[in-house]
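Key result, reporting period 2: structure in, sequence out.
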């Protein structure tokens, strides 16, 4: 989701962008104090949503809205202004919303949840299911691993949400080897190679970073029900029934995060 915020007052722009980021932390948000600079940016980066001040020097928010609609006819324009008398002009442009300053996160949330033209987000071809049993899907198909430890390795990295995990930690958790012996390290190397091979076979190797000393997933490259839940995606709440990666005992420590 690409969001543009334009206000000639620096402090007001920071407030608007803060409200947007609080509601949509994963969105691409770009702010401008100059409407002409915002328009130039939009010509090569068409936004899905635009929060616009009405009164600005050089080009009003109303005129900017017209120009943005010429770039993307389905853009959602939300006017944010200290003047209520422009409401009728705003809605004559089929605006998605009209907010009176000061803008709060609650105001931004309400408008983003009730867009005139809902934004369709592209579905990830790689999706990870964690509620219930852990499963990896690529292009809608369940991926089967020839070695169960390779699947468990991926599950543990997903549980860490992109944080780097050391080989020692993996040996301790997955192989239950606190001593970090040579035997367990060699076995872990085989598991890592097997995971990489399995992902490469389905063109999904970009979801992980398998460095020689530290490992992690790259959340931006796949979808995940647990991540959606924690990011407040409404549909995700209906998918959690109290089970998380049920086949792995170590996952029991993580389930509390879904009850906060």
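The corresponding designed sequence is given below.
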């Amino acid at each position: 989701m690409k969001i543009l915020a334009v206000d000639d007052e620096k402090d007001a722009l920071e407030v608007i962008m803060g409200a947007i980021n609080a509601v949509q932390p994963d969105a691409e948000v770009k702010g401008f104090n100059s409407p002409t600079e915002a328009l130039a940016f939009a010509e090569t980066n068409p936004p899905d949503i635009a929060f616009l001040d009405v009164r600005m020097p050089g080009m009003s928010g109303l005129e900017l809205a017209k120009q943005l609609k010429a770039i993307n006819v389905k853009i959602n324009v939300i006017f944010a202004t200290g003047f209520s008398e422009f409401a009728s002009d705003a809605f004559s442009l089929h605006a998605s919303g009209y907010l009176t300053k000061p803008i709060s996160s609650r105001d931004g949330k309400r408008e983003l949840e009730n867009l005139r033209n809902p934004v369709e987000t592209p579905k990830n071809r790689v999706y990870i299911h964690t509620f219930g049993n852990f499963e990896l899907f690529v292009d809608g198909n369940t991926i089967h691993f020839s070695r169960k430890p390779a699947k468990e390795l991926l599950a543990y990295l997903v549980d860490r949400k992109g944080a780097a995990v050391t080989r020692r930690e993996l040996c301790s958790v997955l192989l239950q080897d606190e001593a970090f012996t040579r035997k367990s390290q060699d076995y872990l190397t085989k598991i890592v190679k097997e995971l990489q091979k399995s992902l490469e076979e389905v063109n999904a190797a970009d979801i992980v970073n398998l460095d020689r000393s530290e490992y992690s997933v790259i959340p931006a490259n796949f979808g995940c029900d647990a991540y959606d839940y924690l990011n407040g995606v409404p549909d995700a709440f209906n998918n959690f029934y109290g089970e998380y990666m049920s086949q792995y005992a170590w996952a029991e420590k993580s389930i509390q995060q879904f009850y906060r």
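Residues 127 and 137 are 5 Å apart (CA to CA). The mean pLDDT is 90. This case is discussed further under Risks and Mitigation.
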